[in-house]
Write a structure and sequence with these properties.
The chain is an alpha/beta fold and about 375 residues long. The chain has 13 helices and 14 strands. Strand 1 and strand 2 (about 20) form a beta hairpin.
Length: about 375
C-alpha cells in the first residue's frame, strides 16, 4: 500500500531573504535524506592546522622582501642572540613537559589520555544543508565518529553550519544528531558564516555556544505552508477529481479537494503545534531565551550583530578566526571529518562526463555543417 504523505518545511528563501516553511504534498523522502541504504557513506580525516597557522609560513616574507639590515654586524649578533634564547625556551618547555608526563604516568593516566590532555582535538564538520538534507547519512557518520572517539571534557566539536532550513522532520533529526555530542559531554560550537535560519537555527541552537559572522542571517523561528488548490478550476472545466481518505483529518487542505473552514482551521492548528515544539526546543537548548522566546520566535530573521543583542548568538566571529585561535593559542589539533569518495565511482563519473561532452561537441559540429551561415566570432 502506497500512502501519499506531507512533509512540513522550515525554510529561508535566500532570494528575497524571507524565511519560510512549506508543506510538500507527495511521497516523503526517507528520513536519511534520500540516501540509498546500499550506498555506504565512508569518512576520512584531514588535519587543518597548517591552513590556519603555521609558524614557518610567518617567515616566508623574510625570503622575498629586501632585508637591508641583515648584513650589519650588530644585527647579526642580535639575531644569533635571539636564536639562542629561543632554543633555551624550547628546551625548558620540553623538560617541563617531560616532568609533567612522568608525573601523570606515575599517577596511572593512560598514554591515550595523555595524548588528549596535552594535544586536545577540535573535530570539525563543514555542514551544508538543503531542504531535505540529502547528506544526513554523512552527518550521522561524522557525529558517531566524534561521540566514539573524542575525549569528554577535553576535546571539542565544531560545526560550520550553512542552511536556510527545510523539512521539519529532517532538521529535527539533524538537531537530534548534534544533541548526541552534547550528551557525550563534548563541547559543541556552531559557527555561522553565512546563514542558519529556521531548520538551520534549530540545529545551531543545540550548541554550547554559537559564533557568527557579522552579516550572517540568523533566526526565522517559525513555520509556514503554501498549498495551491485547483478545486474550482477543475470544477469549472467539468473535471472530476477524486480523493479517498481514511481518517477525519487525513487531508485538511490539498491541491484538488474542496477547501473547508474546518480543514483550514485544523491545518493552522497543526502548524501552531509544530511552531510550539520549535519554540520549546530553542528555549530548552538556550535557557537565556526562555523568557524572551515569544519575542524572537516570530518567524523574523536578523543579521548576526542584531541577533547577538537578542541572545540568538553568543559571539561575533568568523569560523576562520575561531579555528586560528584554537590552533595558535589553544594548541589544538583541528581535524576535519569529510566524506571519503570512492575512486571507482569518481573515475566512472569522469568518463561519463567526457562521453557527454563529446556527444555535445559532435552535435555542434553537425549543426555547423548543416548551417551555411558562418558563425560570428564572439568578442569580449
Amino acid at each position: 500500500m502506497v500512502i501519499a504523505g506531507g512533509s512540513c518545511l522550515c525554510a529561508c528563501a535566500s532570494t528575497c531573504l524571507a524565511c519560510i516553511t512549506s508543506i510538500i504534498a507527495g511521497n516523503s523522502d526517507k528520513l536519511d535524506g534520500g540516501n540509498n541504504k546500499d550506498d555506504i557513506v565512508k569518512i576520512k580525516l584531514r588535519r587543518l592546522n597548517d591552513r590556519y597557522y603555521h609558524e614557518p609560513q610567518s617567515r616566508l616574507l623574510d625570503k622575498v622582501r629586501l632585508n637591508v639590515v641583515s648584513n650589519i654586524k650588530i644585527v647579526k649578533e642580535a639575531t644569533e642572540k635571539e636564536s639562542k634564547a629561543e632554543k633555551k625556551v624550547q628546551q625548558k618547555q620540553k623538560k617541563e613537559l617531560e616532568q609533567k608526563v612522568t608525573q601523570d604516568l606515575e599517577a596511572g593516566i593512560s598514554t591515550t589520555d595523555l595524548k588528549h590532555k596535552y594535544r586536545p582535538v577540535a573535530f570539525l564538520i563543514d555542514f551544508e544543508g538543503d531542504v531535505m538534507l540529502k547528506n544526513m547519512e554523512l552527518l550521522r557518520k561524522q557525529v558517531s565518529f566524534i561521540v566514539h572517539t573524542a575525549k569528554p571534557g577535553v576535546d571539542r566539536a565544531i560545526i560550520i553550519l550553512t542552511s536556510p532550513g527545510g523539512s521539519v522532520a529532517h532538521y529535527g533529526l539533524a538537531a537530534s544528531q548534534l544533541v548526541r555530542i552534547r550528551k557525550a559531554n563534548i563541547h559543541l560550537t556552531v559557527c555561522i558564516d553565512t546563514i542558519a535560519a529556521s531548520g538551520g537555527f534549530m540545529m545551531a541552537s543545540v550548541a554550547n555556544e554559537i559564533y557568527a559572522a557579522p552579516f550572517a542571517i540568523v533566526g526565522s523561528i517559525g513555520v509556514v505552508t503554501q498549498i495551491p488548490n485547483f478545486h474550482r478550476f477543475l470544477e469549472k472545466h467539468d473535471v472530476d477529481a477524486y480523493l479517498f481518505t481514511s481518517g477525519k483529518y487525513k487531508r485538511t487542505v490539498d491541491i484538488i479537494g474542496e477547501v473547508t473552514e474546518e480543514g483550514k482551521q485544523k491545518l493552522q492548528e497543526q502548524l501552531d503545534d509544530i511552531h510550539g515544539a520549535f519554540k520549546d526546543h530553542v528555549a530548552l537548548s538556550r535557557p537565556k531565551l526562555k523568557e524572551s522566546i515569544e519575542d524572537v520566535a516570530t518567524g523574523e530573521y536578523w543579521l548576526a550583530v542584531q541577533a547577538k543583542e537578542l541572545g540568538l548568538v553568543d559571539q561575533i566571529m568568523t569560523s576562520d578566526e575561531l579555528l586560528d585561535h584554537l590552533v595558535k593559542d589553544k594548541q589544538n589539533d583541528v581535524i576535519e571529518i569529510i566524506q571519503k569518495k570512492d575512486k571507482t565511482h569518481m573515475i566512472s563519473q569522469f568518463f561519463t562526463s567526457i562521453t557527454a561532452n563529446l556527444g555535445l561537441f559532435n552535435r555542434f559540429q553537425q549543426q555547423q555543417f548543416q548551417n551555411n551561415t558562418p558563425t560570428p566570432m564572439a568578442i569580449s
